[in-house]
Amino acid sequence: xxxxxxxxxxxxxxxxxxxxxxxxxxxxxxxxxxxxxxxxxxxxxxxxxxxxxxxxxxxxxxxxxxxxxxxxxxxxxxxxxxxxxxxxxxxxxxxxxxxxxxxxxxxxxxxxxxxxxxxxxxxxxxxxxxxxxxxxxxxxxxxxxxxxxxxxxxxxxxxxxxxxxxxxxxxxxxxxxxxxxxxxxxxxxxxxxxxxxxxxxxxxxxxxxxxxxxxxxxxxxxxxxxxxxxxxxxxxxxxxxxxxxxxxxxxxxxxxxxxxxx
Length: 262
Fold this sequence. Notes:
- The protein is α+β, with helices and mostly antiparallel strands.
- 42% of the residues lie in helices and 29% in strands.
- Strands 5-4-8-7-6 form a five-stranded antiparallel beta sheet, with helices on both faces.
């Protein structure tokens, strides 16, 4: 403020305040020195804008990003474990006649690990037909394993706009490539749309040939809602400072806005 008075420039600052009910709020203060006819600073014009909702939205978005980072780290670790189990299966297949019981044990561990993953996972073949659907997928989409297994991807949760992209992903994966972190909208059993990060990886057999693929989802619906709310809040904030201070009638509403006076 002192520097603004000295330079005659507008100033802006953030501050925290306490409401009568004891809740904490956030505001942006804006001001500008006003000069009199002698070009001397006579008064100081200022205003305060409450942006508590925006601040809380930013904090919530940051928390969601931190949770997503933790989930992504867990997913990478789980994928590493899956690859490790797959290598174990490859070794067992090389001596199947001597180690059939060991193969069953490893397969059981794989299934327990797969079903216990907190990240939604499913396996599919080159035609896009689903073969495995873990518990986290059921919780995310509402489709049970019985409803969705042996059905093709685009007949279940793919939206019509994603069909060509979905087929392209399947082709990419069965050429031996990975697809990681694509943003998708999927259709849930209750007809709602969920925002996810979709990844897919090839699964190889004992001879190194691709025998299937595994897909994963990371639910980012809450993050997308927070981003939309933050954008809306920023637009409201920008409009407030862009209009002059008076009551005007526009689009059927009376709006009180600010006016800069010399």
